[in-house]
Write a structure and sequence with these properties.
This is Fe2OG dioxygenase domain-containing protein. It comes from Asparagus officinalis. Its cofactor is L-ascorbate. GO terms for molecular function: dioxygenase activity; iron ion binding; L-ascorbic acid binding; oxidoreductase activity, acting on paired donors, with incorporation or reduction of molecular oxygen. Helix 6 runs antiparallel to helix 7. It is built from 11 helices and 13 strands. About 10% of the residues have low confidence. The protein folds into 2 domains: about 100 residues, no CATH class; about 230 residues, Jelly Rolls (Sandwich). The longest helix has 30 residues.
């Protein structure tokens, strides 16, 4: 999470390197990305000759990488292999691994490797000592987790089925009923139990993100697999429909956490963008007033502090169990929670393929509101200049 006062999303740059690939992901890519050569010969080929596939090769059966020792989850290699260029599919497994490691290594610089290993050990210490309160929430059970309308829409996974349950109060912000009240209560109880354990053992835990002081990282105490399943089977189908231009069809990792607001907790959240391609935000409860989300348009790094247009302004009031789904680059914040205690579940969904592709882009007019406006203005000026030149030539020929 990054504040907008920096004029760029520093969080995306500093934390992208820590992604280890939390699961299989959506298994699709929405754009080609330039990638380095695989080292099969001494000749380094150009980036243009080594592009990842735009769409996954569904006929290709990838190798298994469960025995691979890496900072990345083995599943991400199997997912990425379907996007390799055709010339890479017939090479040895070792060559494929080297090729993919060079891609993934861009997001885990050498200086970050020790930190990633320490984080892994940190998680292992927690899970070896913490005893879950409600083990049934550690695996997704659709009928007990979700409301029937959401389950039915996911089964069909068409734009029409999603539109039937989704409201879009502002372009790119989607809201829908998602979680059962009983599941919200169980998750809240689990978080409370974890916090009691932390206080009793005086275990020093990591904050949810760089802006929230109160809450917990769900991935750190055993809920990582459940949340990855949630992303893969229930968020990816929606993201493929509504967020393809920002990697919504190639989500392959996540950061899952809860944040807490109240008089003795965080009160509000400043204007910022998330370190994600797609963000899921679901209010869990409890009783509270205030805390509205406010949205102010989608921006690339260059335009993150540009002015908000009237049509981009949205204020949203939380409803327990109701989800908000939006692009990570959609600028937003949270107004003060004036009374009570509000807890929200958030999942930042990321795409390593999209992040690789974005490194080589200069024009983000496909999704940045300000880039779109600049492009339209350039087109308007070009048309006006052409008309003026035409009128001048016609006038000259008549003299």
């Amino acid at each position: 999470m990054a504040t907008l006062s920096t004029r760029r999303s520093t969080a995306a740059a500093s934390t992208a390197g820590r992604r280890r690939g939390d699961g299989r992901g959506c298994g699709a890519a929405d754009n080609a990305a330039n990638v380095p050569p695989d080292g099969r010969s001494g000749i380094r080929q150009t980036y243009g000759d080594r592009r990842l596939r735009i769409n996954p090769n569904k006929d290709h059966k990838p190798d298994k990488y469960d025995d691979l020792k890496s900072d990345f989850d083995p599943a991400i290699f199997s997912s990425l292999e379907r996007h390799l260029p055709p010339s890479m599919l017939d090479v040895s497994k070792e060559a494929k691994i080297q090729f993919m490691k060079e891609i993934l290594g861009r997001y885990l610089p050498e200086g970050e490797r020790a930190r990633a290993q320490k984080h892994k050990e940190y998680r292992q210490r927690i899970m070896s000592a913490y005893q879950p309160l409600h083990k049934q929430i550690y695996n997704v059970d659709a009928t007990t987790f979700f409301v029937p309308s959401f389950i039915e829409a996911i089964k069909k996974s068409t734009e029409e089925s999603f539109r039937n349950i989704i409201s879009e109060p502002s372009p790119g912000v989607y809201t829908f009923a998602m979680l059962q009240p009983s599941f919200c209560e169980l998750l809240l109880a689990e978080v409370e139990n974890f916090e009691k354990w932390v206080n009793a053992t005086k275990f020093k835990t990591m904050k949810p993100n760089t802006m929230n002081k109160y809450g917990a990282v769900l991935d750190d105490f055993g809920l990582e697999a459940m949340l990855n399943n949630l992303m893969e089977k229930f968020i990816c189908p929606i993201s493929r429909v509504f967020f393809t231009e920002v990697g919504g069809s190639a989500l392959d990792s996540h950061h899952g956490f809860v944040v807490e607001y109240g008089n003795d907790k965080d009160i509000e959240l400043g204007f910022h963008v998330d370190d994600s391609e797609v963000t899921l935000n679901v209010c869990l409860g409890k009783e509270f007033s205030g805390g509205e989300l406010f949205f102010r348009g989608v921006r690339c790094d260059k335009h993150v502090n540009s002015e908000t247009q009237p049509e981009e302004i949205l204020d949203y009031s939380h409803v327990p169990g109701r989800a908000v789904l939006h692009r990570g680059r959609h600028r937003h914040g949270a107004r003060p929670t004036t009374s009570g205690h509000r807890i929200n579940l958030l999942m930042w969904c990321r795409s390593s393929v999209f992040r690789e592709m974005k490194r080589y882009q200069k024009d983000f007019s496909g999704w940045c509101g300000e880039c779109q406006r600049e492009k339209k203005e350039r087109q308007r000026q070009s048309v006006a200049a052409t008309k003026l030149a035409f009128l001048r030539s016609e006038g000259g020929s008549m003299i």
